[in-house]
Queue: 2 jobs
Job 1
Amino acid sequence: MRTVLCFGDSNTYGQVPGGGPLERYNVEQRWPRILETALGAGWHIVEEGLSGRTTVHDDPIEGSHKNGRRYLTACLQSHAPIDLVIIMLGTNDLKVRFNKPPSEVAMGIGCLVHDIRGLSPGPAGHDPEIMIVAPPPMLDDIKEWEAIFSGAQEKSHKLALAFEVMADSLEVHFFDAGSVCACSPADGFHIDQEAHRQLGEALAQEVVAIGWGNG
C-alpha cells in the first residue's frame, strides 16, 4: 500500500464555488478521492485541505493556523511513512494582505519542500516523492472577493511558471492544474465538480508516470 498526502487549501478541501465556507463537495466528488479511485488498489490517499491555507504565512485575520508550514510537520509525522506528497497551494498567498509576488509564493512552496526533506517521512526514513501542483489561474471576475484579492488575478497566471522553475531547481515533480481544468465563474477562484474530476484523473496519470519499481 502506497500513501499519498494531498496537502492543499479550499480547492483540496472541496469548497463549492460561490458557496459558504462549509459548503463542500461530497468526498467522492473531490479530486483526492477521484485520484485514489483512478489509481486503484494499493493506494491510500490522505486528504488534507484547509480553506484559506497559505504556504508559510500566518494570516492576521483568519489566524496563524492557516499557515501551511505550521501544520505540515505534524501532518507528515501523523501519516508517515508517506510515498508521495502533493502540494497544491499558492492562491491564498496572493491576497492583498500578504502583498507577495509570484516568485515569493514559489519560495514559500520551496520552504515546504525543504521541510519535507528535513523530516524524511518516506518509507524506511527516506525522502518521499514530492509533486508541486500549480493551481488553475483565477478568473478576472471574482465577485465579492475583489477587495481581498485585488491584483491577484494577473499574479495567478504567473504562478505556474514560478512553481515549475522552483520544482526544477529542487528536482521535484511539477504539474500545472490549469492545463486540465479552470476555476468556476461562480466565484472565479474555486474549482467545480467537473474540474475536480479532470484534476484527479490527470494527477493519477502523473503519479503513475513517476515510476515506482517494485519497492
Job 2
Amino acid sequence: MLKLVPADYQYAADLFEAVHESRADLEPWLAWAKSTYSMDDVNHWLGHIAPQGYEFFVLDAAGRYVGSVGLNALRPANRIANLGYWIRSSAKGRGLATAAVTALVAWARSNTDFNRLEVVVAVGNTASRRVAEKAGAHYEGVAKARLLLKGQYHDAAMYSFTSGADVA
C-alpha cells in the first residue's frame, strides 16, 4: 500500500536524501539528478517548479518517502500533460513505481480534465519503460532525438494514457 501526498517542504530532507542515494540510477535519465544536487535545488523545485504542475511524493505503507510522481509540462488548451516518476533505489523492485503511476492516472481522471497523459522515456531506460507498460500505458513508438540529456540527444519511447473521450 502506498500513499500520494502533495509535494511539500515537510519531505524536503527526505527528497534530498533519496536523490543522493539514487543518483547512480537517476543521473543517466534525469537532467536534474547530479552530484551537485543540493538543498537549494530541492527548495527551488518545491517553491518554483512543483507549483507549475501536479507533483506528489510517494510514501510507502510505513509512511516513508520513496519517490515522486507528477504531471508537468501542462498543455491545458489541448488537455495534455507529461507524466513523470521515479522511485528511490532502496525501494525499487517492490512495484511502487507502477502503483504510484496507476494511482496518479486515477487521480488525474477524477481531478483534472486532461484527456492525454504522456510518458516520454529514453529508449535505453528499460526500468522506466517497464513501469509505463505495467501501469497500462499505450506504447506509441519512438520519437527520434526527443530528449536532451547531459548534452546528448536520445531517442524516446512514447507512451500515453488517454481517457478515450472523443478520440478520432
